[in-house]
Amino acid sequence: MPLIDYIPAQTNIHFMRLRHWTFPFSAVISIIAVVLFAIHGFNLGIDFRGGTLIEAQTSQQVADVGALREHLTDLDVGDVQIQEFGSPRDVLIRIGAFGANDEAQQAILAKVKNVLGAEYTVRRVETVGPSVSGELVRQSILALVLGAVAVLGYLWFRFEWQFAVGAIVTTMHDIFVTLMIYSAFGVDFDLTSIAAILTIMGYSLNDTVVVYDRIREMLRRYKKLPLPDLLDIAVNATFSRTIIVSTTTFFATLALYFFGGEVLRGFSLAMTVGVVIGTYSTIFVAAPILIHLGLRSSTVTGPAKDKVEEGEVAEVDALAATVEENAVEEKPEAAAPKGKRSSGKAAAKNAPAKNAPTKPAKA
Predict the structure, then answer these.
(1) CB neighbours of 37 closer than 8 A, spacing ≥ 6?
(2) This model's pTM is above 0.90
């Protein structure tokens, strides 16, 4: 039996009932993220802070990081950071100073290489000046802002405003949680991290749009279905697809994290966390928030599609029809005032039927 058969095509999980716990949880996580941004900040990489980055490897079994830090600090080349890089033999050296020209920069590198000596082999050198790093910061912020504006504009044009606001809130939630990982664990935040954030934005948005498209189609088809029940059915209808796609993407990013090397470590970590939080937010944030945004069936315009969409199973229509019938039957019962229903039934029971023959009165 294929593994995919173990995931049911149609589930019946009441996701909307959990929103009373998932909304506070998401709010707390977002607040913690903002506090971390303000207090701890980010470990900005060489791209945004400027300076020189040197990757070196020792010929010994283990690099003596403490001795290197002591010798490099005495050189007076600015802020120096040294950390293990990959194997115990590799070290990553960050120097805050940078020369005003190529000759000054080469002089700084010559001092560092002199301290490293013949015991270390320099494998990579990167240098970013202050003007370049400032321009990269501005371009990165502009890319994130323009990406969010483009997403909002597309969703506003493609869907109703409730869907657009819900998608933006969900996407910002995913970005905040991902940035919290960078701040909490001190992962280098560089241009690769910006690429990871934009990728997570697109991935989360894709999952959200799939669920929103199913919700909108069901709103056109089942006008009398209560919104929480309709959202449950729509999320359950796409639940199998969401889990399969998220699981395969998660294992791919996890493999990239362990075997992709140190250069891609920050990118793969952000992607791994982003896949998990994106799946969570699609189910527990994007759909339930439509209830609080006042979405109604009358809000969605356009006729329902006569042709069943690809991937839609018959159990979805059957379950929706059952819930709709129950809602229609319960509505007049709840609307009738107490005390009058029984008297009305009794009066109707005792009242003579129309055109019924009447018995002659006894003399």
Answers:
(1) 179, 180, 183
(2) no
